[in-house]
Amino acid sequence: MDKIINCIIINGPNINMLGVREPELYSNKTLKEIEGNLYTLSKELSIHIETFQSNSEGKLVDFIQDNYQQADGFIINPAALSCYGYSMLEALIATKVPFIEVHLSNIYARERWHSDSIFSSKAVAVMAGMKDYIYESGVRAMCHYISENNRKTEE
Length: 155
Hints:
By secondary structure, this protein is an alpha/beta fold. The protein has helices at about 30-45, 55-65, 85-95, 135-155; strands at about 5-10, 45-55, 75, 100-105, 125-130. It has a five-stranded parallel sheet with strand order 2-1-3-4-5, with helices on one face. Helix 3 (about 85-95) links the parallel strand 3 and strand 4 (about 100-105). The chain starts with a strand and ends with a helix. The model has no long low-confidence stretch (mean pLDDT about 80). Homododecamer.
């Protein structure tokens, strides 16, 4: 039996899956709907999805260090950490667990792409979109990345 993939979604300061920082940019989905969609996706892909959110970079780093051994991939929304979250970036890199960076905004929301993110150069993928699908897309991308790398390792 194959090992179940464990994806961990981490949301940084001042933002959660509802995009509370800029609610006018997002549709009226509730947190229960988003969590429900992730639960449905986890059953469809036969994976485990866990979420974590904190307004403290130290708590985010502690969470990564305490949980990386159970993680096959991280989906991170660093939000306010995008320009200065070096401790979180260093913690992610030290784990050697792949991560995808996602952003809860469309590309034009701030009239620029998130090119100043310190995470983007180390992430296996960088994605932006509305909350209706960005976490599902991040999880699907991570599962694809893991399965492709497993296939290359087996060859």
